[in-house]
Amino acid sequence: MRQIPDTSIFDLRLSRRGLRLNKMCTALCSPAEREAFKRDEEAFMTRFSLTDNEKDLVRKRNFKGLIEAGMNIYAMLKIGSATGNSLYRMGAQMRGESYEQFLATRNIKGAV
Amino acid sequence: MPSKIVAGIGLSHVPSVGPVVDRKRENDPAWKPLFDAYIPVRSWLEKLKPDVAIVVYNDHVAEFGFDRYPTFALGAADRYAIADEGFGTRPLPEVPGDAEFSIHLCEELVNQEFDLTVCQEMGVEHGFLVPMNLCFPHTPSGWPVRSVPLQVNVVQHPLPTARRCYRLGQALRQAVESYPGDLRVVVMGTGGMSHQLQGKRFGFMSEKFDHWFLNEIEKNPESLAQISHHRIMEEAGAEAVELIMWLTMRGALSKNAKRLHRHYYAPMTTGMGLITFEE
């Protein structure tokens, strides 16, 4: 499919690249796994066989980089929640803006 | 008596609506315009008295992971659990299903060459629950209708085409009409409208595209069904491609179904649309 500027298209090649990351995020749908992640993030990442580069992206909360590494946005919402990063905070980072700068671009910023 | 489709609804399934409902914040100034739009829709539905809602939606990696990912998955159970999508389980009653009706739909749809994944156990999350919250509010005694969840892959490309989704709706209509249970059925197509949740273009919306889409789905659904994923994603944002699920709803309704309600509200990052049709 033709590229769209500033847009990631989650296709099978990207999904294959991101499979480890996405499996890790999907596990966060269980309360026990969320606790395990919060207790020892490094051990959690190792359990899901993340590469060093993938681990580093998670450590740095580099959401733009994680999307490029094949993390699906809906999987990312789960790790965002576990690390205290709402969708809008992650979005601001991907836009290269502060949270406040991003909110200022919205029509009704109370609808969060 | 054969069953029939009595109404169709196209609507967004924005996840932030869930906590607003759970915390009873529907009258907050930022949310009131959305919830007010559903007041007449709810009265209309109460008068229509549907037995079953077929909800065309997508799961957001709560029940289906990318290790195995179905293109079309139909629920065939008598109850559907509330899924934990990573933020805790919402305090909602289990959703009643209609396994006999679902089994009939599976048989008819597969006979019409829609090769579904059949789910005898599945949980449902915001893609399904937010439209239910908006149209069929639950009470302490549960939900006012039984449901059939129809999950579509609108996340991992290649996706089914818009036209395929429209044809699925046409097949669904035949399947409903051949069920002898005398059921009154509402079909809900959910998702969209314009939004993009990743990349530098995060937060992109297009009110112009959304109003065009609302016009076309009412008046020219057959030509709208020719739209490419690329065009939707380019003009309305990558995640707007969920809108192909509205075409399943429209395909299940007759061409001349009467359009009743229409509303649009775009406060944050998603154009929230609503359109209803009555047979």
Structural write-up:
The complex is a heterodimer of chains A (112) and B (279). Chain A has a domain at 12-84: Protocatechuate 4,5-dioxygenase, Chain A (Orthogonal Bundle). With 112 residues, chain A is mostly helical. Chain A is 62% helix and 0% strand. The radius of gyration of chain A is 15 Å and the shape is globular. Chain B has 279 residues and is α/β, with parallel strands linked by helices. Chain B has a single domain (4-278), classed as Protocatechuate 4,5-dioxygenase, Chain B. Chain B contains ten helices and eleven strands. Chain B has an eight-stranded mixed beta sheet with strand order 6-3-8-2-9-1-11-10, sandwiched between helices. In chain B, strands 5-4-7 form a three-stranded mixed beta sheet. In chain B, a hairpin with a 6-residue loop joins strand 10 (258-265) and strand 11 (272-278). In chain B, helix 4 (99-111) crosses helix 6 and helix 6 packs parallel to helix 10. The longest helix of chain B is centred in the middle third of the chain and has 16 residues, at 162-177. Chain B is globular, with a radius of gyration of 17 Å. Chain B starts with a strand and ends with a strand. The mean pLDDT of chain B is 98. Classes of the chains: A mainly alpha (112), B alpha/beta (279). The A-B interface holds A 1-2, 4-12, 15, 18-19, 22-23, 25-26, 28-31, 34, 64, 67, 72-78, 81-82, 87-88, 91-92, 94-96, 102, 105-112 and B 16, 28-31, 60-62, 65-67, 83-88, 155-158, 196-203, 229-230, 233-234, 237-239, 266-269.
